[in-house]
Design brief:
The longest helix is centred in the first third of the chain and has 17 residues. This protein has a 6-stranded parallel sheet with strand order 3-2-1-4-5-6, sandwiched between helices. A 6-stranded parallel sheet has the order 9-8-7-10-11-12, with helices on both faces. Helix 9 links the parallel strand 10 and strand 11. The N and C termini lie far apart (87 Å). Helix 6 crosses helix 7. With 323 residues, it is an alpha/beta fold. It contains 11 helices and 12 strands. It has 2 domains: 137 residues, Glycogen Phosphorylase B (Rossmann fold, 3-Layer(aba) Sandwich), CATH 3.40.50.2000; 150 residues, Rossmann fold (3-Layer(aba) Sandwich), CATH 3.40.50.
């Protein structure tokens, strides 16, 4: 009798390695979570790596949009050794395709680090890339529409809004009140015109204080003195600036009754978790390009934020939060 041959084991399809680039800042990273989810769905079965900067690594991991997060140290021009290390990391990754969601001069320069080749497929604005976002009016589009169009040109048509529901943490150490308003008075230090005057925030906190809705001021460690000054003399207000990770911040936002703040990354978080959010704009930023999106967002804008009165903001909060 002839020898029986064993059936050949089925081989698993090869996993392609896909790279997504999103370096910062917070609002931009949060807005990119929807496109990242779309990329993950489109490349089901492939290995997805996100290249980002250290402050956003844990948030991206918690959002479950990638298999791996790679840290970019953002080398300066003269730091040749760091550039060589980054080049080695990119080339050794074996990436089949790169989605550059940062689309900056820096991130576009990473395409050149693959010289002399082989070069991956590349979606972005790098000169000579395989899937360019070549709409000459791309810079006049809102971030969400711009990224959706970029992915459409690369073959991905279904781009959802960012989903922050997987991002959960234990914030029991903050001892948050049952009913509170999240107040976010900070923002980029180099853009002071984007900030509502601190005396207006003090007056708003004073109106909320003792109303049954506790003002809770959030921000970075460097903004803790600002938050302390805003709540000075308050009966109930809380200062949690510098006490939250970005993951904590998402959880805090989900528990807030409503939120108010300048055009900053935390207000993008508040809007996407779905709480009523009132965002204050001056002419220093354009909501047509970067407005917070969500279920219940109110934009209040003035040429200069000093022209925006406390009563108008308080009324908007009352309508949004139902107080």
């Amino acid at each position: 009798m002839g020898q029986r041959l064993r059936p050949m084991a089925a081989t698993a399809p090869e996993r392609n390695h896909i790279l997504v680039i999103k370096l910062g800042a917070l609002g931009d990273v949060v807005q990119a979570l929807g496109p990242m989810a779309a990329i993950r769905k489109h490349h089901a079965g492939d290995r997805i790596t996100v290249l980002t900067t250290a402050p956003y690594a844990d948030l991206i991991k918690a959002a479950k949009v990638a298999d791996e997060v790679m840290i970019d140290d953002r080398p300066r021009f003269a730091e040749i050794n760091k550039w060589l290390a980054l080049r080695r990391k990119l080339r050794d990754g074996g990436f089949k395709r790169v989605y550059d969601l940062q689309t900056s001069d820096r991130s576009s320069s990473y395409f050149r680090l693959f010289f002399p080749g082989p070069k991956p497929e590349w979606s972005g604005i790098a000169r000579g890339c395989s899937h360019p976002h070549n709409n000459p009016k791309r810079d006049l589009m809102h971030t969400l529409e711009r990224q959706a169009e970029q992915l459409s040109m690369a073959g991905i048509d279904d781009v959802p809004l960012p989903d922050l529901s997987p991002v959960v943490s234990d914030v029991s150490h903050l001892k948050l009140p049952d009913q509170f308003c999240l107040i976010v008075p900070g923002g980029a230090e180099h853009r002071p015109l984007k900030r509502w005057p601190r005396e207006r925030y003090r007056d708003l906190i004073g109106k909320l204080d003792g109303s049954g809705i506790v003002p809770v001021v959030a921000g970075t460690s460097s903004e803790r003195p600002l938050a302390a000054a805003l709540i000075e003399g308050s009966l109930t207000a809380r200062n949690i600036a510098g006490e939250t990770s970005l993951i904590d911040l998402v959880t805090v936002a989900t528990r807030a009754r409503f939120a108010v703040g300048n055009d900053n990354g935390t207000m993008h978080v508040a809007a996407f978790v779905g709480i009523p959010s009132v965002v204050l704009y001056s002419d220093a930023s354009d909501p047509a390009l970067c407005a917070q999106r969500g279920q219940d967002v109110t934009i209040l804008r003035r040429h200069a934020l000093a022209d925006l009165g406390v009563e108008e903001v308080y009324r908007a909060l009352s309508m949004e939060g139902g107080s």
